[in-house]
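Troubleshooting log. The previous run stalled partway through. Resubmitting the same two chains, unchanged.
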Amino acid sequence: MSYLNFPRLAFSGQFQADVSTVNNDTRHFDNDTFQEKFQDFQTQHSYGTQYNGWWNPVGTGIFRLNDCKITALLGPDGLAANDLALGCVLGNASDQPSGKLVDLDPDWQLASSIYGLSVTLTNANGVIVMQGDYQPNPFRDLWFTRAEGLRGDSAASAMFQSVLTNVQWNLDAIHSPFLQELKAASQEGLLSIRLTTYGYQDAKDGSGFTYGKLVGAIGPVYAHEPRSFVLGRRFMPYLMSDGVASFDSRSTRKITCFSAVVDQATHTVQLDLSNALSTDAHFAIQDLGSRQLVVLKNPDTAQDAVVGPQDYVLLGALNYSQDTQNILSGIQAFKIAAEAAGLIANHPLALIAPTPSGEQSCVVIREGMGGLEVRAEEFAFRLDPNHPDGNDFESTVYAAQYGTPLANPQLQVVMNAPAPSEMPASAPAEATPQAAMSTNNIPSLAITATVKDDPVLNQQGVVQIGFQGPKIMNTPRYYVDGQLYTLNYNFSGNQTTVQQQFDNYAVLLFSTFAAPETPSWKDVEPILTQYANLYPVMSKGLFDFSKQAVADANAHIMYFVFSNMDVNDPDYMPVTRDMSYSKRKMLIQYFANVMASAPAPKDTQQRFAARCPMGFDRQPTAPR
Amino acid sequence: MLSIKPEFMRRLRAATTVAEVQSMVTAAYTLELATIPTYLTGAFSVKPGFNPEALALVQSVAYEEMLHLTLACNLLIAIGGTPAILDTGLSLEFPTPLPMCVDEGLTVALGAMTPEQVYTVFMGIEHPDTQAILPGEQTVSALMLQKQSQGYESIGDFYQAILDKLAELEASGLAPFGQPNLDNQVDIRPWFPHVECGDGKVSNMETARAIVAVILAQGEGAQIGDDPIDPHGGFAGSFAHYFKFGEIYFGKRLVADAQAASGWSYSGAPVALDPEGVYRFLPNAAVSDYVPGTAVHTAAADFFNSYKRLLTSLDQVFNGAPEKLKSALAIMYELKLLAQKVVQFPAYPDQPASYVAAPPFMLNKKPA
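Second attempt completed without errors. Output:
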């Protein structure tokens, strides 16, 4: 589906995510208890970690592709070896600021989203032959145990899938039948893109700090298909506990969930394993031993069941070559044996491994029971009671069975129980932030989720869920605006299916804020102080906007930064996404008033300082 | 001070077509563009928290040069030319005499903002074309004497010759401003408000003279050639570049002083340039100076990449998309932040006490 279709372009290289981490601890949002050391790098003592500003307090938030080469071109007939697209490079826009990677909220850092990334395909002469804007969305299928022997972000892996919009082609600059086909095959003027990211280096003294590995793919978009995930054959590992199946978040079988599609035209199953197979500590795909892809003849055959050759039809064996990961973007294709052709549409796919005796096999991972899959397209969003159009959101959910849209699915959305924010304690203890920890998902009735009835859509296996924020929202997190809610979604009744552990709704609901007509410095100061605390790359690297004289001297730039309203614009500052409509409006108003009331500064130094990033007055000079 | 190569002045004065004047204005904007890496390198060399007045002064000059670049490009567009900011920017090699300038005159090198760099390079670039004795000088400067003895002309003379030639071509019916292409020019007011030349666009001799007046006044000072000199840049309370740099070099604010020959002296409030607060930058840094595979190389390459993006975006601004200045501004933020990453590293990891890595404005070192 989409990038799993043909023609498909595979690429690999690196990504950079220079994320900012002072805002990783919710307690740092409290101005009253903020300490300067929360802007320092963390330090390791013999008795533990002093977290300070964690591992990258000076992060710029920049997200970019680095050194990504096109490694393979795949069509229905196989690899296209001689096409000039193979010499191309996938990169960033040549004339824009860099894209950014931003968390939804400090209490939900599991849906980091790319904004403002424009992707270019450049030929061997450096000429751009294709450019498109990556539609913002968060990563999915995040797991923290991919790289064996490592811990934390370095061991993690996730997939970003989205579409490129506003795609512009310059195919006169390259003779590439492959690219011509890709352009022709894709609908709605879009392209499907998937980035699998892992091997992240978060140790500040390493030469590759903030860089990681990336394997990706680009393919055609088909209308009416989801854009942020593959609606296909979803393999889902689970653990049983007291008769209840839940997602195997510890990846005990060294393989996590992944999706596949049955490609009718080529009679193959395409498995996207780019994010799924465990690696060693050097991020090389590990050889797990024999794993065979099969179609199970009995749909009720559970994971861990022991099966014999009569219980399945064999399609092929997984390979663990680094080339598959690095050249083919981790996608493996399996011919559908004639014997499987009649079964595959309504029988589960599975990976099996030989039992110790070797005579039989055991099911390592299979499609969800019943072949059921339900996934939301948009699952991380904001609700804002301060704006009439900002307080409701519609999410489109797709349901399928064995990859076929499931008509009239019955769905439910359930808010999670109140849960305290979990932030680490530092060593020594006095270095731990003193602010009280917040609790999420309260008040629980603040958000309503309504499954909407739409016979036409529902018949196609598509359901829309409407979320509504309250008329008024207080500040249950005290020093942090709004509240973070997580809500699970699934089939209702006894049809629930196991989902990836972070595949739930995450909603940032802003607090109601009544901005004064004429905001004064004391109204804006708490917001600006909080940002100055959380983003030292701005407040120390550029100028300290928590000081009135400095903020006012730079009113023009402040106004420019906050008034850029298009959230998809790469110039849109990440920090403005943390703000409700009324707070942003208040800041814009404040700086507009400063500009209007200030006399034209006589000194060009002051005059120009207000308009140029190069010329900030760290300490505004006295007029002469 | 800048001494223009006599052959340039000759060619300009002998020009008979608008196209020839376009190439001269191209040389002028190239010169403005070349000052930007020079002054920005100085600004980036100031350690966080140190020398704030000196930093503010050099930054103010850097963005006035951006105004000059913009005005020169508007002039070029007005007479039918198209600025090639990207190619021009990438072609700049340091150390170098500035474009059009005599080789035996001033050599501009990229380096830390030391007193030496301020005096020799920064003040050298901006030295007014005047016989008057300037504040801080005991006699007429050596550069000025050289210029006199060789009969060189100044940047002011150059711009004046451009204006004269345009007036001459206009009088002979060639209509240099026939298609001023105003939509492609940049309205400077959102970015540089209250400048004497209004929106900074050029469409005739009058507006051409107005923008040249701004460029020259801001750089060298008003009433250049007069004695005593007025150090102001034409705006009340603001000194021209040469005198701002003088304040850094002499370490004090320039104030009116009846005792001084020029009527001014650097005897006001202190302007600190504490050497402890200036990084010992690798001079004329290029990305190729850094060892591939090291963190400093990555940071340097990222910086240079943002500089290229800035040039690319400015190129679009001056070639039909003036609204893209917003994007250019956002890239400038990035440029500054990425510069700060570069300067955390020694230039050579195995010689940490040697030079500090300087944000590179060149990909490859200039061949010796």
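Takeaways: Chain B has two domains: 6-277, 286-368. The CA atoms of residues 108 and 121 of chain B lie 6 Å apart.
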